[in-house]
Amino acid sequence: MRPRRGLVCLGLLLVLGIAAASEGAGEVAGDTDQLIRVLRGASLPVELAALKMAQGCGPAGCIAALGGVVVDTEAGALRRAGGSTLEWIVAGRIPVADLPEVNWAPLRGFRVRRAGRSWGVCIEFGHTGLGNSGRAQRWRTLVLVPASGRSAHRFTGYRASCEALVRGAHSGEVALPIVELAQPGTATLEIVWHRCDAQRCVREPDPRSVEGSPASEDGRLTIQ
Question: Apex CA 70: angle with CA 67 and CA 73, to 5°?
């Protein structure tokens, strides 16, 4: 009986060891699509519809229009089509002066629907100068504009994408999981959920940890 008991104990230790190793391995994200999948987890995605962009220049300057939102690409401002300028709200721990400068020519935009109802618009931007070359290109600025709101909310994150948007816990709320710098002047990363309705966005830290460097050759991250 003792040898059998020893085999059982050995088997149990092996199972526990494999489980611990699997738990410690985390989930690896080597590109934007993989990172979106890991960040969203089991959350239900919103419905996105790509917007056609209309661009042009006139006496008042150059603009890009997407889904009723007009981007003044020279002044660096957003407004409703035929309406007033939207209040620019920057989210995150990093001071505006330390964020990469937005390249105001939008990369792409989406109409956002939540549970079949129109929620607003999500627009993706790149950055100028050093922020638009090499490994710095992995960082993106997203702007959320609720359909009935008066503000444009800016989020800057690593491989950030409108396609990461999911339904929020409350009616009329969407949630954006994003990888951000944890503190100014450091390379430490954290995951933050930005939960937004028509009036405001609220930050909610994610307990998962992020390992890896955004400046590495492959940009691979491991989420624990």
Answer: 135
The pTM for the full model equals 0.86
**Residue for token digits 């042009």?**
56
Residues in the chain: 224
Contacts of 79-88 with C-beta under 8 Å, sequence gap 24+, read 86/145, 86/150, 86/151, 86/152, 87/150, 87/151, 87/152, 88/151, 88/152, 88/154
AA letter at 221:
L
Average pLDDT over the chain, rounded to an integer:
89
Of 51-55, 72-76, 184-188, the poorest mean pLDDT is in: 184-188
Within a 10 A sphere around the Cβ of 150, how many other Cβ atoms?
14
- Scanning the structure block, which residue is given the tokens 């505006």? 96
